[in-house]
Specification:
Low-confidence stretches: none
Strand content: 5-15%
Oligomer: single chain
CATH architecture of the largest domain: Orthogonal Bundle
CATH class of the largest domain: Mainly Alpha
Structural class: alpha+beta
Mean pLDDT: 93
Number of domains: 2
Radius of gyration: 24 Å
Bound molecules: iron/sulfur cluster
Number of strands: 7
Shape: globular
Largest sheet: 4 strands, mixed
Helix content: 25-40%
Length: 355
Amino acid sequence: MSFTSRLLDWYDRSRRELPWRALPGTPVDAYRVWLSEIMLQQTTVAAVKEYYLDFTSRWPDVHALAAADLDMVLKRWAGLGYYARARNLHKCARIVADRHEGRFPRSADELVKLPGIGPYTAAAVAAIAFDEPVAAVDGNVERVISRLYAIETPLPDSKPQIKTLTQDLVPGERPGDFAQAMMDLGATVCAPRKANCLICPVQALCEARRLGVAEELPRKRPKPARPTRFGTVFWIERDDGAVLLHRREEQGLLGGMMEVPSTPWSEVAAIEPLHQAPIAAHWTRCDDVVEHTFTHFHLRLDVVRARIATNQTGPGMGPGCRWVKPQDLLDEALPSVMKKVVAAVLGPDAFKRRR
Ligand code: SF4
């Protein structure tokens, strides 16, 4: 029995039920596949479910999302990270609604031309929504294929080889189920730290299992150490309780998101950070240092706070700044690092009223 037959038989018995996954025999909605795949980029299924249900209840189709206010999309996205993805999601919805009459292109080659859709997402959407026989290779698939063929070349050098080997396995029939079965196998059986070879449907064909090296694979090239950056954030509260927020530049890290005003984040801590405060005030330092890890660096933020008169202003309180009542902070598009800043000042329950 071939790899594909074993895999699809197993999938028919053991497929995961996911909110974005069409039931067997029911039509697949490309909008929902695309939305879930964008949300799932570098995030877990558990983290995405709540956001997916929220988005699809607010914006049940691509026309509704295209017509949505970008700020509202960013707000509802806050917490999923990688905010450029939310902006591209919105841009992509507009293009599909305006230029494609609300219908997603059906091939990976066309999908990849849309904002925010990379080769993996294009292949996943084309395979799952339109049954195009293309290989959708994400981290799960890389792991399964690395083990299946006992590939010793480390990632990312082995990517081209893995892509070719995966493409050779994609069946002409049910390529969408094949893509989802590979995702399920990697997520539930051939897991990162534990290869459950005893219950694996393809164990008889697996080279890593035969050699007893499953959990050593895939090999990975050592990552360079993450540098640490430092900054100071300025928590400015008016007499009426409102707090100053600032919108970050559209381009770059956390682009377009709201933040508590901050010094630049640099690898050398500023000697006189208070000189960079947006307003002259009497500052007190909070006890907690906020720490956050981004993909490429760790961040340590000192938090200083001041109270000012409601009519006071300063040179750093120009365009992009906004006063927000503490009870409304939850509705702002604050990235996770800024939620940590809010929690450091207002306490851990500041964001208890959840979405
Ligand atoms: Fe992964 Fe083990 Fe299955 Fe091979 S046999 S694919 S290592 S779970």
